[in-house]
Write a structure and sequence with these properties.
mainly alpha, 434 Repressor (Amino-terminal Domain), 5 helices, about 65% helix, about 0% strand, globular
Length: about 80
């Protein structure tokens, strides 16, 4: 990231699809913004923001989101695969 650039660097375009799908799930779950889901579930709001922007995240963090959104890993990745087509 260049000095002064606030946009997170994406190492892999697949991460952008994961972030996009996490945002869609948040909205489907009724959360209008990432700060509300963070507050309601005891997650740092920047973790939610970065995940939705497609930055690299840990498997543990991804699983936490999937539990919140009540989606299995297989369902999640199947939906991400469809987005890629």
């Amino acid at each position: 990231m260049k000095k002064g650039d606030k946009t997170p660097k994406q190492d892999d375009p697949y991460l952008a699809l994961i972030g996009k799908r996490l945002k869609e799930l948040r909205i489907e779950k009724g959360y209008s913004n990432y700060e509300n889901v963070a507050y309601d579930n005891g997650i740092n709001r920047m973790v939610v923001y970065r995940a939705e922007k497609g930055t690299n995240l840990t498997l543990n963090t991804l699983l936490k989101f999937l539990r919140i959104y009540e989606v299995s890993p297989s369902e999640f990745f199947a939906s991400v695969e469809k987005m890629e087509e």
